[in-house]
Design brief:
Rossmann fold; 4-stranded antiparallel β-sheet; globular; 265 residues; alpha/beta
């Protein structure tokens, strides 16, 4: 593996995919550095989920090359599956099992040693220890999503694929998930995140790619992308609280800082 491979988690070149006469991906190029959050921003139908399905070996490409952890997806699908974990738009937890039982089940399915110890460690890490014995059906949306992400970390994948992870969540639950994603990167995990929410990409991503009609229109760090447009004339006006500020002030949140207070990467 080359030095460039060791610094790159996901590499996509010339990726094409069609469904019948509909061309979804049209020569897409993408590079995700290790240990970063890369947000793929696009509207519905832009091709985000199709890309994630190809990267995760669930769908074959028509043309192009996709590499994960230095392994080409088409030639080394088993190696790629060992390196990744996929969390889709809806939490894939068994609601009849408790949080601990969900984690223990996945650890056993992945042939991990000491599945109970692994489960308890993840419950602590994701602030779910107090709810460990409760059925997942009683969890809030944010708790279910945190449990889902915790399950995806069993086996220590180097790349986490999050396909629109906050779809359908309320504002407080979204911030819980954002806090979880930040914690993943602090642990050195690479995250490829798809979203249609601009604030989500702005709050979380080291780099952002804007996907439109099957192609990346522009890609870079947030500061680089904002320089594309001419700066607006500066006016000094009193800052009014945002709706998010009001919501959090009323209901409170113990899981995360307000994202507007986060330092930009």
């Amino acid at each position: 593996m080359s030095e460039r491979d060791r610094t790159t988690a996901v590499r996509v070149h010339g990726l094409r995919k069609s469904f019948g006469e509909v061309e979804v991906l049209r020569g897409l190029d993408l590079v995700v550095p290790r240990g970063t959050v890369f947000a793929l921003l696009g509207s519905n139908g832009a091709g985000k989920t199709t890309l994630i399905r190809i990267v995760s070996t669930l769908l074959s490409a028509d043309a192009g090359v996709v590499e994960v952890d230095g392994y080409e997806v088409a030639a080394h699908a088993a190696r790629v599956r060992e390196a990744i974990s996929l969390t889709g738009q809806f939490a894939a937890v068994d609601e009849q099992l408790s949080g601990r039982e969900n984690l223990v089940l996945v650890a056993r399915l992945r042939h991990q040693h000491s599945p109970v110890r692994i489960a308890d460690k993840l419950l602590d890490r994701f602030s779910l220890a107090e709810a460990a014995h409760r059925r997942a059906a009683t969890y809030s949306g944010g708790m279910r999503r945190r449990l889902d992400i915790a399950m995806s970390l069993i086996g220590d994948p180097s790349v986490i694929l999050l396909d629109e992870p906050t779809t359908g969540l309320d504002p407080e639950a979204r911030i819980e998930v954002w806090s979880t994603v930040r914690e993943l990167t602090r642990q050195g995990t690479t995250v490829l995140l798809t979203t249609q929410y601009l604030d989500e990409a702005e709050a979380l991503a080291d780099r952002v790619g804007i996907l439109h009609e099957g192609r990346i229109l522009v890609e870079g760090a947030l500061d680089e992308l904002t320089q594309i447009l001419q700066p607006a004339e500066i006016e000094y006006v009193p800052k009014k609280p945002s709706l998010e500020d009001v919501f959090l002030a009323l209901v409170g949140s113990k899981h995360a800082e307000c994202p507007t207070d986060q330092n930009r990467r």
